[in-house]
Amino acid sequence: MESLDAHLRVVKMKFPGQNDRIEELYESDDDFRSLCQDYHLCLQHLQKFMEKLNERNDVVSEYRTMRVELEKELYEIIYKH
Questions:
Q1: Among 6, 20, 53, 81, who pairs with 57 as Cys (CB 3.0-4.6 Å)?
Q2: H or E element in which residue 62 lies
Q3: Using one digit for the tens of pLDDT, what is the confidence trace for 59-69?
């Protein structure tokens, strides 16, 4: 299993300047923590598929779409919560 630091690191890189807020949410909100983990896994799979498959492949397209949706959810929680 990936370390919790890896989950936080990718979210902090996506939303610079929000480190304290992200850490606060990660420690106090189970849904946010799960969302961070999902986002990290999505990025890992997307990278793996892009390396092995044609970028026009449906799997790559689905993971790109999932990444955008997860980023929208993270944004809403970090900035609007």
A1: 53
A2: helix 58-80
A3: 888 889 999 99
